[in-house]
């Protein structure tokens, strides 16, 4: 397999040269590569990162031995999917529940089984963050910084250890972006089609991924018009047709098990009306929830969510979904710096992670849902990790990136008891981690 960012391409004064054009019009910065940057097999590093992340996510995965937060909705739906008994949790597409069901089929109906497939999705997300940062910069160090931020950012860790749909959606979405970006530098339609398949799979987990199909289409048209040598064997109209057609077909293919339900089985005739019913359910007005929050509060960490805070497995335990303040606030500074750098240079590689973050948050300003929750911020929190790595790489901020990761690691150790559901001293122990009233 070729490197994620192939050698041999470059630009001079905005003129693209070589067989592998860079993403941006700025000339490559002259520097002596670090030895790690010369590694020719970044896919192997991505694989090792995924294995390491998986080992971390699996530790004490069965604790607590009870459904946590939205597992109470998705576990019954996964069991129904496994038994093909009939529809459940019909407001969401089926793929995430099918993946949870695979875990149950492999290991039995146990807490470990409920969450196992989520650990794989979380590990894939860490590897995908590495791949995306490496793709944008061509440097191993940036990829490793991004992966470390993902591991230390809290959100990937918590989501990888709970059976929720968002975990799967983000894994497919991250790799869709990587593959579509990589396809720009490779002839052949296979990578473009693979990216479209991954977008369809992400949408089949949760509809929140659907806008990224439009984002990908818009980015393709802009970059292709800017330089026709990008995606050299794809023309605009056929490429958009492939992107939309393949992603939609992939999405509908995930409904196949529903055709075999014992009751209320889906048919070709009912498949499209089912989508309208799902849409209406998404728009329904729901009662007030303790942890609801508007979209603009998520980047500011104003209202995280306690997935669990109660006695479980013989002790008081808590699981708090919150972003690592170092990574989240540092990520906001990185996004601002990348926008500033893009305005000055026009470099698309600086704009890409900043824009991904912005779109991931801003779409919830227009999505017609009556309630919002901090876990909707999960995709944006992942893109922040890429933004941090690209910003450090752009300004050659060594050893500040190491100091940044050390600070993030220190906070990870501090918050770990309420990220992993460890036994706490008493019911009032939450006060140690609730720095602000909105964190209670």
From TrEMBL:
The superkingdom of the source organism is: Bacteria
User: So what family is this one in?
Assistant: Belongs to the glycosyltransferase 39 family.
* Glycosyltransferase RgtA/B/C/D-like domain boundaries: 92-249
Cellular localization per UniProt: Cell membrane
Instruction: Give the matching Pfam families.
Output: PMT_2, PMT_4TMC
Task: State whether keyword Nucleotide-binding applies.
Answer: no
Regions that span the bilayer:
43-63, 116-136, 142-160, 167-185, 191-215, 236-262, 318-338, 350-367, 373-392, 404-424
Q: What does this protein do?
A: Protein O-mannosyltransferase that catalyzes the transfer of a single mannose residue from a polyprenol phospho-mannosyl lipidic donor to the hydroxyl group of selected serine and threonine residues in acceptor proteins.
Biological or metabolic pathway of the protein: Protein modification; protein glycosylation
Residues annotated as domain Protein O-mannosyl-transferase C-terminal four TM = 268-338
What protein name is recorded for this chain?
A: Polyprenol-phosphate-mannose--protein mannosyltransferase
Q: Where is this region: Disordered?
A: 1-31
- Keywords per UniProt: Cell membrane, Glycosyltransferase, Membrane, Transferase, Transmembrane, Transmembrane helix
Q: Which InterPro entries match?
A: PMT-like, PMT_4TMC, RgtA/B/C-like
E.C. number: 2.4.1.-
- Grouped into one coarse class, the protein's main location is membrane
